[in-house]
Amino acid sequence: MVTVAGFAACALLLGACGGDDDDADADATTTTLSSGTAQQPTTTRAAATTVATTTTTLPPLDLVTEGATVMVANASRINGAAGRMSDQLEVVGFTMAEAGNSTEGPLEISKVYYDPANELAKPVADSLREALGGGDIQVVELAVPAPTETGEVGEATVLLAMGNDTADKSLDELQGRVAPATTAPATTTTAPAEETGEESTSEETTEETTEESSEESTGEGG
Length: 222
What we know:
Elements: H1 2-33, E1 42-45, E2 49-51, E3 54-55, E4 69-74, H2 81-91, E5 95-96, E6 100-101, E7 111-114, H3 121-131, E8 138-141, E9 158-162, H4 171-174, E10 178-179, E11 182-184, E12 188-191, H5 202-221
Parallel strand pairs: 4-5, 4-6, 4-9, 7-8
Antiparallel strand pairs: 1-12, 2-11, 3-10, 7-9
Helix pairs in contact: 1-5
């Protein structure tokens, strides 16, 4: 009898120990299932792209620059642009007089005047128009008084009434040899947040597990 009672006591102790292990596993499983976290949104930013200046190869202009002096009179809305244009024209070979101001401004389209008394003035005036890109620029005879703030052009026999179309632009740009550089704006793409794991709390997981176990037991019993 003592031996049977001892075996029964040991069996009860082993059964109790097994129950604790099951509970510990369940707790561990519940903790693992309830550890779902929300994935953070991913943002990708594309860097601004600068489009390189486009250069077009064109044959050099055959300009007539000798035989007449050129004066630039500012007829634009940009202060100081006549002096800067004079510097550019001098670089390509024109003989330049001191820049001044026009009485015609502001002009949207520049005009080129030449003194008909100088037979070399007209070819220089035509070359000046070509150097400025041609287009709608007209070449006309210079009248007296000249359309400058003093009414004179000094030693010049060619006058450029520089309008807004040519003010502060390079000769290469006016001739279509280069295009100004442009910058594409930066773009941003954001991916929506995605959630991993549907369980929100350990209590809900424990309740669902208990309910499923009860249903399975009931079904087997029936």
